[in-house]
Design brief:
The chain has four helices and two strands, in the order ββαααα. It has 105 residues and is mainly alpha-helical.
């Protein structure tokens, strides 16, 4: 996600959101980074806690997006009313909205 900014010289610059592995867990809800299998770090741990809180899994919070986390994401997406092709195990804006804002389909 790029946010338009103006540099010190007055020219446009792009400020990118930090990489998921560099965010603190407290910032994950704000930045809502794209997450998928193979990712790790504080945002994955935050995701795992949210999935557990929503009843989508009984995950060990290990900060690693592996097969169990993928299954839990798909379970949440299904319960949230996502359609067939949307149940992909990837955590993007729509999945984050359901997990954090409760705005399921």
């Amino acid at each position: 996600m790029a946010i338009a900014t103006i540099s010190a010289t007055g020219s446009p610059a792009a400020a990118l959101a930090p990489a998921p592995g560099t965010l603190s867990a407290a910032n994950c809800a704000t930045f809502r980074p794209f997450l998928s299998s193979g990712d790790s770090g504080p945002c994955v741990a935050f995701l795992q806690r949210r999935l557990n809180a929503k009843g989508a899994g009984h995950l060990t919070v290990d900060a690693v997006f592996g097969p169990a986390t993928t299954r839990a994401v798909k379970s949440f997406q299904r319960a949230c009313g996502f359609r067939n092709h949307e149940i992909d195990g990837l955590v993007g804006p729509k999945t984050w909205a359901g997990l954090i804002d409760g705005s399921c389909v």
